[in-house]
Amino acid sequence: MTDLLYARAQMGLSLAFHIVFAAAGVALPVLMVLSDWKHRRTGDNDYRKLSEKLAKGTAILFAVGAVSGTVLSFELGLLWPEFMGRYGEVIGLPFSLEGVAFFTEAIFLGIYLYGRERVSPNLHLFSGVMVAVSGAASAFFVTLVNTFMNNPSGFTATPAGPVDVQPLVAMFSPGWQYQTAHVLLSCYQASAFAMAGIHAFILLKHPGAAFHKKALSVALPLACITALLQPLVGDLSAKHVAKAQPVKLAAMEGHFHTEVGAPLLLGGLPDVETRTVPGSIGVPKGLSILAFGDPDAEVKGLNEFPRDTWPPVAKVHVAFQVMVGTGSLMALLALVTLWRRWRGREWPHGRGLMRAWLFAGPLGLVALEAGWLVTEWGRQPWIVRGVMRTSEAVTPVPHLAAPFFTFTAVYLFLGVTVLFVLWRQVAGTLPGAADGKVAHGH
Fold first, then answer.
1. Average pLDDT, whole number, for the chain?
2. Angle formed by the axes of helices 246-253 and 210-244, to 10°?
3. E strands of 173-288, at which residues?
4. Binning pLDDT at 50, 70 and 90, where does residue 436 land?
5. Could you tell me if 115 and 123 are in contact, meaning their C-beta atoms sit under 8 angstroms apart?
6. How confident is the model at residue 65 (pLDDT cuts 50, 70, 90)?
7. DSSP E strands: which ranges in 66-187?
8. Exposed, middle or buried: residue 441 (CB in 10 Å: 0-12, 13-18, 19+)?
9. Which of 164, 181, 217, 29 is nearest to 105 (CA)?
10. What is the band of 171 on the pLDDT scale with cuts at 50, 70, 90?
11. In the chain, what are the domain boundaries?
12. Helices assigned H by DSSP within 245-267
């Protein structure tokens, strides 16, 4: 494997690991505040216990996210020095603001964790809200950097580098509103589905566990709302990609030939040699409708673009299909759950539906990872689309295999450790548990 591939693999591994903890760090404070608010409204101590558990989980994930995020910041400079050296001044503003949001989140998280009995209830709740707001702001600013990489603006490109830099224009590059909304919703959706899946699993084992029914009543509304909003935002994002990044859309859809009234291909694995998608099912005019809202619209195929500007078509197409497929399943489950909630006037806890939520628990994270793969793979071979190729930005330092395998081992260790610590938090809520330890026989 070449050094370029090792650099990309290391960055990809770091992002894949970090994004899980970053997403939870954005969403868990919202669930924490909702639990706290329900405790204040009802006086039910189960909701207070839930908010305390979620606060501890937020702290754990915040710490791991801080470590992995710091590693990413070093990797940007060490692995991609040409990119940071040339475009650091263009995209420095959102990076700086992300740092401000990060420190704000840390301050208010400390108040929330240790100030419950030391500050007024209103200030304590406000500190939780600020953790949620600053966590979302942190993700918002980082996503703006990625938007710039996909649709660069706010500068004039010259052989010597960017000139006439306009930091605010660069920060809010075309499509920023779609990409940031899509990312933030995915954070809330993935975390809420994971939380619902955990409590559904426990309710299948202990159907009468009141604490877990209440926890589910906090997770399900957020999971259902985001699952239904996400396809709408995703549709707007895809329409923007169709206009701004037609080669990326063509790779996502496995669309090789320019067509009027282009079909939407479901499934299949693109073959770039024969420029076909074996195993796919075509929906007549579906792609033209989804991309441009017109059944007779022309959709450019990959053949319209130079071969050396194509993304890895098969990878992008499969990742996109996984994202859309899992998103559709979650939206369907949300509709069924909301319908049952409307009919029964309370959140349902039947075994059939709990099994469905158990199996759907990981889908949000799968969709989240698949979506980021679409974004990153779909931009290749560019690190800044149309301006700087990934091969031009990579470090000249050789022998990147050793740090790649070292970081892989570190991330595996961190992942196992975090899962163990989080399980200890969940185990303390099981029926028969006392002081965080599960009694024998449970």
1. 86
2. 120
3. 259-260, 264-266, 281-283
4. very low
5. yes
6. confident
7. 156-158, 161-163
8. exposed
9. 29
10. very high
11. 207-390
12. 246-253
